[in-house]
Specification:
Helix content is 27%, strand content 20%. It is α/β, with parallel strands linked by helices. The radius of gyration is 21 Å and the shape is globular.
Length: 354
């Protein structure tokens, strides 16, 4: 019993997605993977001296159908099993994995254990699948600890290919390549090769005196709007005046610039005065919003727009959902926290142990 208690314990949560398919040897059809027989289908896992358990969603969810209620379910599962496992692996479809990773990074406050999301571009039952390697890497990273038994990467992360990324910094960048994810504004936390090489100075650590606090509410009254040349006033203004909308992620040009039409600034000003929180992020793949650099960005600042610095759209949307659930009647607090790094999501304030 003592020897078993020293084994690292990993819980695999299967939500759905391509990785969870395997070919039926009799019919040749792809069917949902039976995670009760995980070792049978992925015998390489026997090389690990880990206790591995699984929790499959019934029925599995296509990642296009992922929503805040299912994020809350994931938080509940992790919270319920938090003291029984050393790490968690979430198998997820790739299309919305970055949204889920971002949402969980905020919902699992002061996380001290790895929560690793992974998936695959080809089903695990296909000969050339990337699923086995991704699964094996994710499990090893979820179980990895230092000599004191502390988790090597106590964060919500995305493990894909040979890279481990901070979850709220990732985006899906390729629909066909096995390197489907990247993190444009933050280097990987670890790279898996012959050895696992960690960027220890980048890893976000929990506050030692604060408890793990799960949050299971998300406010979905959030929009993401991409600016483009020729945006119509008759379409844009009504969207900003919708009373049920609390937060808007505005995807602007370059370093946070928008068209200089007066009606645009006026529509945004009215929205912020009504208590809506408007967050400015760039459409560029990498780089940071700097609204003071040009007049076309400075007008947004004067209209009450909050800088999203270098947040991804997935991160900005889910952070707004999280903060409005915590502070439903306090848009000023939401504005302040949107411009503050609370889970390593902003480079400007992103320092270890911050």
């Amino acid at each position: 019993m003592k020897l078993f208690s020293l084994r690292r314990r990993v819980l695999i949560i299967y939500t759905g997605g391509t990785i969870g398919m395997i070919r039926n040897p009799e019919t040749g059809a792809l069917e949902t993977f039976n995670f009760e027989h995980l070792m049978k289908h992925v015998p390489e896992l026997r090389e690990f001296d880990y206790s591995i358990r699984s929790y499959p969603f019934e029925p599995p969810i296509d990642s296009s159908d992922m929503k805040p209620e299912l994020w809350a379910k994931l938080v509940k599962i992790i919270d319920y099993n938090y003291n029984s496992f050393d790490g968690f692996v979430i198998l997820h479809g790739t299309d919305t994995m970055a949204y889920t990773a971002s949402a969980l990074s905020f919902a699992l406050e002061n996380l001290a254990k790895p929560v690793i999301l992974t998936g695959s571009q080809l089903p695990i039952g296909v000969l050339r699948t990337d699923g086995k390697e991704n699964l094996i890497n994710a499990i090893e990273l979820a179980a990895a600890c230092d000599e004191q038994g502390q988790a090597c990467v106590p964060e919500v992360c995305v493990c894909f290919g040979d890279h481990l990324y901070r979850g709220n910094r990732t985006t899906k960048c390729n629909a066909e390549s096995f390197s489907a994810f990247t993190s444009y504004n933050l280097p990987p936390l670890a790279v898996t090769g012959i050895n696992i090489n960690y960027n220890h100075h980048l890893i976000h650590r929990p506050q030692p005196d604060a408890p793990f606090t799960p949050h299971m509410q998300f406010e979905p009254a959030v929009l993401a709007i991409t600016l483009f040349p020729g945006l119509s006033q008759s379409i844009f203004e009504p969207i900003f005046s919708l009373p049920e909308v609390k937060g808007i992620v505005l995807r602007t040009f370059g370093t946070g610039n928008a068209p200089s039409e007066q009606w645009l600034a006026q529509a945004i000003t009215r929205a912020t005065q009504q208590g809506k929180v408007v967050v400015n992020i760039t459409q560029c793949q990498s780089g940071c919003v700097e609204m003071r650099r040009y007049q076309t960005g400075n007008q947004l600042l004067k209209a009450g727009v909050v800088s999203g610095h270098d947040m991804t759209v997935e991160c900005a949307v889910t952070k707004l959902m999280h903060l409005f659930a915590l502070h439903p009647d306090d848009p000023q607090t939401v504005r302040r926290l949107m411009a503050t790094s609370i889970a390593g999501e902003i480079s400007l304030h992103d320092e270890p142990n911050a």
